[in-house]
Amino acid sequence: MFLDGLNELDQKILSLLIENARLSYSEIGERVGLSRVAVKARIQGMEESGIIEEYTAVVNPQKISGAVSCYFDIETRPEALEEVSEQLCANEAVTQIYRMTGNCRLHVHAVAAGQEEMERLIREEMDRLPGVIRLESHVILSRIKDVKGLRL
């Protein structure tokens, strides 16, 4: 659907990996009708071409006692965008940064161990970013739907 450059078998393999990246090559092969070796070769090809970027565990911060998850919308002066992006990338609490359409807008996700740490992040990091015109923060109360990766 989204990946016209991939044939039907590769799309099936990707769908299975998105659903459960811990499936073995043999398990995937059984489901798509290929040998373990053929599945491994196809997956390695998708990794080498950058279609598959990484495999990771998805941790729900709300299940960790006291963790606070927050989204920030940041508007900067155009000349400050690169420096702000670099500072945010260097911050361990920041998990995602997206450049959005609009006036040099960044959409940032951060997770802190608790409310005090989130307040410290806002006060000592976010509020001190250079060239910021506007900063909005939105604390996540609950996760209703959270799709990871591309759905085929």
Strand content: 15-25%
Task: Indicate the low-confidence ranges by residue numbers.
Answer: none
Order of helices and strands: HHHEHEEHE
Characterize the largest beta sheet: strand count, sense, and whether it forms a barrel. 4 strands, antiparallel
Number of strands: 4
- Mean pLDDT across residues: 89
Strand pairing plus helix content: what structural class?
alpha+beta
Short description:
The chain is α+β, with helices and mostly antiparallel strands and 152 residues long. The chain is built from 5 helices and 4 strands, in the order αααβαββαβ.
Task: Describe the fold and architecture.
The protein has 152 residues and is an alpha+beta fold. Helices cover 34% and strands 21% of the residues. The protein has five helices and four strands; from the N terminus they run αααβαββαβ. Strands 2-3-1-4 form a four-stranded antiparallel sheet. A hairpin with a 4-residue loop joins strand 2 and strand 3. Helix 2 crosses helix 3. The termini are close together. The model has no long low-confidence stretch (mean pLDDT 89).
